[in-house]
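From the methods appendix. Each design record in this collection lists the tokenized structure first, followed by the designed amino acid sequence. Records were kept in a plain field format so they could be parsed without special tools. The example shown here is representative of the layout used throughout.

RECORD:
FOLD TOKENS (89 positions):
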């Protein structure tokens, strides 16, 4: 007789594995935000000039805005992926 193996259950949203997955997506988004900001500053001289004349606070607001936006977007995308995987199984 064959023994049926139970399929590996995907992590639910409210579990330690799900939280770690969501945080991983958020960290990837933050890294992408930093990379995008650097690419934007290097490829667009008016943005670099604007940040140079804006002072330290302008640069901080620019970086925090990009990192937060990308992190939230990646985190929401991760939540959608986890929900979709839960519905498939």
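DESIGN:
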């Amino acid at each position: 007789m064959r023994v049926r193996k139970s399929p590996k259950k995907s992590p639910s949203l409210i579990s330690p594995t799900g939280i770690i997955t969501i945080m991983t997506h958020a960290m990837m988004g933050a890294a992408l935000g930093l990379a995008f900001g650097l690419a934007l500053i290097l490829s667009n001289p008016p943005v670099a000039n604007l940040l140079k004349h804006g002072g330290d606070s302008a640069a901080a607001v620019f970086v925090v805005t990009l990192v937060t936006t990308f992190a939230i977007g990646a985190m929401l995308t991760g939540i959608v992926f986890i929900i979709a995987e839960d519905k498939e199984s």
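APPENDIX NOTE: The radius of gyration is 20 Å.
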